[in-house]
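To: structure subgroup
Subject: Chain for Friday's discussion

All,

I'm putting the inputs and outputs inline so they're searchable in the archive.
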Amino acid sequence: MKPIPRTHFAHLPTPIEELPRLSVFLNGPLILVKRDDQTGLAFGGNKTRKLEFLVAEAQEQGAQTLISAGAIQSNHCRQTAAAAARFGLECVLVLTGDAPSQPSANFLLDQLFGARIVTVSDRKDRDRTLQETFDAATAEGKKPYLVPYGGSSPTGALGYAFAMQELMNQKPCEGSEPSQGCIDWIIFGTSSGGTHAGLVLGQRVFGFKGKVLGISIDESEDWLKSHVSKLASDASEKLGERIEFSREDILATDAYCQAGYGVLTDAEREAVRLFAKYEGLLIDPVYTGRAAAGMIDLIRKGFFKRDETVLFWHTGGQPALFAEKYAAGLM
């Protein structure tokens, strides 16, 4: 395996916990949770794993500024701003949506970390403004590094390839061998594809025998299969010889994202409340809430066997609970 530049600031390994009361309530398989909400950086989350590799790449290139983009309450941008602050880099965020009159949740945290924020009305404007912002920083001699949307590049995906290795070195089931003999399914939210691609790559490289199912937050199943398979293939070259992944290697469902990105439905409301009520565990309404809602529906439909073990990969995002639009919708 090739040597790979990496900064080490995440709190790893993140723990695996059983969710016994929720498992009993749903009358389904045993549910475990992998607590990547506890990765440590700025309330944690899955992007921290990716940023360990992305920041190292930026440093290798002599970058002085991190530039990235996302929604107005982006978890990715919050963690990117925190990483920039930690390593003494400037940060510029291009965010889609209207800035709240009273800063809250991730938007407030972006400001606390010292990021300069540019807001745009829609994704088309965001992509154009992001390029203009990058070009301007280059012209000003600020040596920018473009952190991809969601941290989802071949470099960023490595964070979850090695997360799979971490998982397999843990023993989540009492008295079990390492997790390849215990976990039948890994369930998580997928959107920009970096977490998904990394897990699929790690599954192949490190020999995980279970199935890896991404529940789409906003993208079509067709797009995810094409995008994630290519991203996993490209990421594999950073480890050594290229591994070619096909669409058939990618398990994903878009059955739960039809309402649109960030649109709170009764399914997300129920998922957030069930995790809180039965396990004292907070999930966010946009990503983990939607993924959990999909998992709950699949359990109720008998998709998983009763004697199987399902690991829900908690990718963080809890600050969104305190955004006004979501807090009001949950009560």
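Points worth raising on Friday:
Strands lie at 16-18, 30-35, 65-71, 90-96, 116-120, 144-146, 185-190, 211-216, 251-253, 309-314.
The chain is about 40% helix and 15% strand.

D.
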